[in-house]
Amino acid sequence: MTSIHTASMSYINRYYEETRERHSIIFITAKHKSPFAPTWDMVKQHKAGTMSDEEYTDLYMKKMRALWKKDRSLFDEILDEPSVVLVCFCPTGKFCHRHLLANIFEKLGATNYGECT
To answer: Residue 79 in contact with residue 106, Cβ under 8 Å?
Structure first.
């Protein structure tokens, strides 16, 4: 069973070696061209305050459902890992798609251990 953790980029920058020894680190950002990243438009609108958390969640979940239908193997690859850390730029303690994605993987059978702190 896969263990899912989440972390901010600032956490990974400080604890990269220790984290890498125990987990697969998956960068889920648009900058890293991850299929699990939100669109740039979603990021910009949410940061500008013109998209609510609820609207962002709805769009992100639609994007993930479409990705699942298009290429389920992307999800299976992560679920095949013993332990994964989902990483993006959002600060710890703030609304973020890494938490939404961790919840998706939890529904798919992974254990969600939450944020690395």
So the answer is: no
